[in-house]
Specification:
mainly alpha
Length: 285
């Protein structure tokens, strides 16, 4: 199996919605973004699958060293070999890859977040840093696109946290800010029940409002000149925002089962968004 095939298999096996945004990329950029996503899966799986903290720590340290080795021209892992191909043509930023690993480190060290400020620091490392690398791979001319990528990453992860609240709590992780849980009198036992309490709904509404603000600020920050290159991010934004809308319409009933969009719905949203951006691109040419 070649490094490229390894990354493709790693990405395909995740079943992520990111697949739908990959459909509209050129083969070259699809290969680049697949390598990035495979890297994210590698380090995220360490935290999710390693039950011994010491072992997980060793693996994250190995990846930190591997990233340093990769940028020194000595990659070893199949994913790192693919990432190495991106360093020169895309000016791949090493610091953001290390920040992504730092986000996984936070999952090893923290399972509770005191307030929104702490949670958003985690969201930056686990999602916005990924968005900043992805924006570089897609290509941009205006530095304001970095603000778009940052805010979109924040919106994505807040949406995931809302969707996965019970699943995360069952694994001992509570991403909902502790001060909000106290404010709305939500106990951690409440987070493992089949039905959300009014307090849980109030907390999730706070996070959903914050996520909506990030979706809006991301769209406002994206310059017209970079919309076409960033169309995959716009497709993902449309899919994730539709998911958040569905959760809100269901009154945050996320405890019994995971809220999701049907595959056909995601494909329709992806096609519709790509078509809209193509028309917009043609208009501004």
């Amino acid at each position: 199996m070649t490094p490229q095939q390894y990354c493709q298999e790693k990405t395909a096996s995740s079943g992520s919605s990111f697949y739908y945004s990959f459909l509209f990329l050129t083969p070259e950029i699809r290969r680049a973004i697949t390598a990035l996503y495979a890297f994210c899966r590698e380090v995220d799986d360490i935290v999710d699958e390693c039950h011994e903290i010491a072992v997980a720590q060793q693996k994250l340290d190995w990846w930190r060293n591997e990233i340093n080795e990769t940028f020194s021209g000595r990659p070893h892992h199949p994913v790192a070999i693919e990432l190495a191909l991106l360093i020169e043509p895309y000016q791949l930023p090493m610091e953001h890859l290390l920040e992504i690993i730092d986000g996984m480190q936070m999952d090893l060290e923290k399972s509770r977040y005191r307030n929104m400020q702490e949670l958003e620091k985690y969201c930056y490392h686990a999602a916005s840093a990924v968005g900043l690398v992805a924006a570089r791979l897609f290509g941009y001319e205006d530095e304001a696109t970095r603000d778009y990528a940052h805010d979109l990453g924040m919106a994505f992860l807040l949406t995931n946290i809302i969707r996965d609240v019970r699943e995360d709590a069952a694994r001992g992780r509570v991403y909902l800010p502790q001060d909000l849980l106290q404010q709305y009198q939500v106990s951690e036992n409440d987070l493992t029940r089949d039905k959300p309490t009014n307090g849980i709904r109030a907390v999730l509404l706070e996070l959903a409002t914050r996520a909506e603000n990030y979706y809006e600020s991301a769209m406002n920050a994206l310059p017209e000149s970079d919309r076409w290159n960033q169309r995959s991010g716009l497709i993902m934004s449309a899919i994730y925002h539709a998911l958040l809308v569905r959760i809100r319409e269901n009154n945050f009933d996320v405890m019994k089962s995971r809220t999701s969009l049907p595959k056909l719905s995601k494909l329709w949203i992806a096609w519709k968004t790509a078509r809209r951006e193509n028309r917009r691109h043609q208009y501004y040419l």
